[in-house]
């Protein structure tokens, strides 16, 4: 039986707080669309709720995601960016339908910046690249990474699990309790990040 394969587990949280320096629009609503890498060239796209263009542009919305994968996939996450788009939707029906949204500004924040920050957490204003107009919108966002633990995934042979391996046997030495091994795995995870 081969050595246990270790998988990482992370909690990722994004907060869309507020926007400023946004050109006012009449009869419409603003929202933020953000894009996250989901691995294997897949993207998760999420939208905040829409806020009337006549109100304060404060969302204060959070989104949490639990990420599980190999160490390689976690290293790949560090190379990815979260893309934020400030969008506007005209609420006046045209031919009986409310149309799509218009991109007003775009910004990216690399996950690496979050991993390298104190407590793996940032909150900042990002200046968006303006698509139209001369005003550069700003978006206040928060990003946080949490490392709950290193999870041991065992290789199973024909559905049977060797009970000694469950408690951390390696090279002929077995731990007396699984707790010691789990603490080692957590320390190894934190050191890897």
From TrEMBL:
The protein's matches in InterPro entries, at most eight in alphabetical order, are given as: C2_dom, C2_domain_sf, GRDP_C2
Organism phylogeny? Eukaryota, Viridiplantae, Streptophyta, Embryophyta, Tracheophyta
Under PANTHER family, the record lists: OS04G0455700 PROTEIN (PTHR35503:SF2), OSJNBA0006M15.15 PROTEIN (PTHR35503)
Q: Which SMART domains match?
A: C2
Which species is listed as the source? Fagus sylvatica (Beechnut)
Q: Pfam families under this entry? A: C2_GRDP
Boundaries of every C2 domain copy: 1-126
Query: What's the protein name?
Result: C2 domain-containing protein
Tell me the domain of life.
Answer: Eukaryota
